[in-house]
Every structure is written in structure tokens, then in C-alpha cells.
Amino acid sequence: TVTKESVIKPDYAIDGDPRSERAERGENRVQVLSKGAQARMRSVGRLAGEILQMCGSMVQPGVTPDQIDRAVHAASIANDAYPSPLNYRGFPKSVCVSVNEVICHGIPD
Questions:
Q1: What is the pLDDT of residues 4-41, one digit of tens each?
Q2: What is the number of alpha carbons within 13 Å of residue 52 lying toward its C-beta?
Q3: How far apart are CA 36 and CA 42, in angstroms?
Q4: Which of 39, 52, 85, 108 could bridge to 66 as Cys pair (CB 3.0-4.6 Å)?
Q5: What is the mean pLDDT of the chain?
Q6: What pLDDT score was predicted for residue 88?
Q7: What DSSP element (H or E) covers 19?
Q8: Contact 14, 46 (CB under 8 A)
């Protein structure tokens, strides 16, 4: 759960239903972003890369997927960001983690 007020939450944060995604489905259009929106996208992409690097540095024997999930959640919230997987269609964690290169969406435990 994200309780920090400064974090902007997506429409699915409460009930898991991505209504805005459904509304745009099938609209085959490219959205042209303003200069300000482009700058925000770059900033978000940079943050996502930093969090991904952090996750990668944590991967080693003895570190559990749940520990990585907690770190992703904390890093996201500390940067006023919502961890995208959290509650998306009911997904219970802030990151998808697979052990031993298993190709699936794993739920950390």
C-alpha cells in the first residue's frame, strides 16, 4: 500500500482495474508530448533505470525476491513514484521477480 500523499497513484491503485488503459485500447494513435512532458518522461526513465540497477546489484544467493520487492517499493516511494506493478489487475507486489531465469511473472514471497 502506498500512503505517501505526494505519490500520484494510477487509477488501478485502489481496485486493480486499469480503466484508463481500457479506454485507450484500439485507438492506434501516437501521443505527441509537450517539452515539459518529455522532460518528465526522461526523468521517470532515469529513475526506472536507477531502480533496475539497484535490483540487479541485489541479486545474489541468499537475497529473497521479497527483499528485492521491499527495496523496489521503498526506492519508488522515496522518489515520489508509484511502483507500476502494485495492484495492477490485483498484482500484490511492487516488482515481478523470477528465480533462476524462469520466464514468468513471479510474485515475490
A1: 889 999 999 989 998 888 777 766 677 889 999 999 99
A2: 6
A3: 10
A4: 108
A5: 88
A6: 93
A7: helix 19-24
A8: no
Q: Which three-class secondary structure string do you get for 40-103? A: HHHHHHHHHHHHHHHHHHHCCCCCCHHHHHHHHHHHHHHCCCCCCCCCHHHCCCCCCCCCCCCC
The pTM (predicted TM-score) of the whole model is 0.81
What one-letter code names the amino acid at 22? R
- Three-class secondary structure of residue 38 per DSSP: helix
Distance of CA 22 to the CA centre of its chain: 19
Distance CA 48, CA 81 (A): 10
Q: What are phi and psi of 63, to 5 degrees?
A: -90, 125
- Predicted local distance difference test score (pLDDT) of residue 106: 58
C-alpha grid cell for residue 15? 481496485
Distance (Å, rounded) from C-alpha 6 to C-alpha 4?
6
> What does the pLDDT look like over 76-104, one tens digit per residue?
999 999 999 999 999 999 998 877 766 66
